[in-house]
Specification:
Number of domains: 3
Number of strands: 10
Number of helices: 19
Bound molecules: adenosine-5'-diphosphate, magnesium ion
CATH class of the largest domain: Alpha Beta
Low-confidence stretches: none
CATH architecture of the largest domain: 3-Layer(aba) Sandwich
Helix content: 55-70%
Distance between the termini: 70 Å
CATH superfamily of the largest domain: P-loop containing nucleotide triphosphate hydrolases
Shape: elongated
Order of helices and strands: HHHHHHHHHHEEEHEEHEHHHHEHEEEHH
Structural class: alpha/beta
Largest sheet: 6 strands, mixed
Radius of gyration: 36 Å
Strand order of the largest sheet: 6-7-8-3-9-10
Amino acid sequence: MEKREKRQKQKETFKKVLRYIKKYWFYLILSILLAVITVVLTLYIPILIGDAVDEIVGAGHVDFAAIFVILKRMAVVILATAAAQWVMNLCNNKMTYGVVQDIRNEAFQKIESLPISYLDAHSHGDMVSRIIADVDQFADGLLMGFTQFFTGVMTIVGTLLFMLSVNAGITLVVVGITPLSFVVAGFIAKRTFSMFQLQSETRGEQTSLVDEMVGNQKIVQAFGHEKEALERFDEINGRLEKASLRAIFYSSTTNPSTRFINSLVYAGVGVTGALFAIQGRLSVGQLTCFLNYANQYTKPFNEISGVVTELQNALACAARIFELIEEEPEKPDAKDAVVLNEVDGSVAMQHVYFSYLPEQKLIEDFNLKVLPGQRVAIVGPTGCGKTTMINLLMRFYDTDSGEIDVSGHPITEITRDSLRASYGMVLQETWLKHATIRENIAMGKPEATKEEIIEAAKASHAHGFIKRLPEGYDTILGEDGGSLSQGQKQLLCIARVMLCLPPMLILDEATSSIDTRTELKIQNAFAKMMEGRTSFIVAHRLSTIQEADVILVMKDGKIIEKGNHEELLAAGGFYATLYQSQFAV
Ligand SMILES: Nc1ncnc2c1ncn2[C@@H]1O[C@H](COP(=O)(O)OP(=O)(O)O)[C@@H](O)[C@H]1O
Ligand SMILES: [Mg+2]
């Protein structure tokens, strides 16, 4: 049952692959044609050799003129074969890399259109490996399939036909002995496969250990965990050695044993052929031709068995990519969705319910009315749903029920792009691209002038450290900010928002990695920026939110207190306790 399902899945994947190949039908047909030509030409050469031998046999009987003609013909055939093979390979490569490019493009586009919930719930490493490693493996398999599978099958069929046309008896000998080769190869392959599987599993284990250790070396050292890590590594390394040796031992017997069988075939043809030749039923030239065929015949069998595993592997990889490509994309904007141009800055949340997992209730009956230009601070213990609320405002997630309005429009009736563009967002996690500092700051406003960029950097107090970099604003940042400190990265993200100045602001622990002194300075910049802009500020340090118009105190997805700093202190509730604990000396 399980096996049948697997087959079924392989078949479906194969069909999908065919759909991608269809676009390149011209190359496919050309490639198959060229494969046929190559095979026929290759099979013709032994016949020519046989003919030549027949012109040589016997002392003083050599017909040089005839041999010369054959030689010339042979040269032409060999050249033609080489040319056909070359063009065929070009076609195959063109097809494979075309398909690979199409698939990668589609997968990448899919990632851009996936809902945030998918990205949150799946390992990023896994997605990367699907788009990079799996597609590569798939390409290898596909290319091998194109180049070796067709020619292999055709060589087998062609050789059989050519042999039958010369002598049926010897052909029977060849066909009779070959199955032995499969039995032996299959037996060894089964053994070897499980060994290789064990080897690659162990290697995977080792990789993840190294990854874990390198990534967290500081923590490993801080907790004095080096010895345990080394022991674990040694143990895995030992197992890997054993598994590798065994895998290599078994697999290294494949070649000698198949060669042995091939030699058996060769000897069988030699002996029967010699007997036929003595009886005069076969010329020496024809025997030579047969010996060549016997050699040629067994080779594709070995190749094909390799190709089949490779193809199965490729299909498995393709299935993983298709899984990603076929993932449900984010629900598109409603057809009549409005583009938010004039944002007055009013936000209202009415009876909003939301949870990431149906069985884990989070936000329940959340109500909030924010007037244009109001500063809303959100505080509460970790995990109480502050970021979740921001996710809902930005429509990274849709509410389960209830409504959120921005500027009087329900956000489900606004295009996502225009909704998100009306917020400037700075988060605790920073995102910088591999580009210059200037480009990173100007991300939301690529047409910004140099002066504007410097202005924004000054406002966010990033100008100081940027100036001290050897290349200043033209410094190229590495992946994710490279060697900048977390705080510096955050300053750059703040500068980015300062440059765009969208009508509303969201700061989710935006200053969490910045030292208190710089934070105080940025506070001023933020204060200026927030003037007349509706802002949502999530912060741990209560000092940064005292000036807010409304402070929401959240707990378990609900608002438990609401008011400004003085009111909340006077109320003597959760906020007052929190405040006193932070400022108690
Ligand atoms: N993508 C997610 N999938 C499932 N649960 C999540 C997800 N993101 C956050 N949560 C859970 O929702 C709760 C609220 O998280 P969050 O809003 O990030 O808290 P915080 O107030 O610290 O910002 C937490 O219990 C968290 O574990
Ligand atoms: Mg948070």
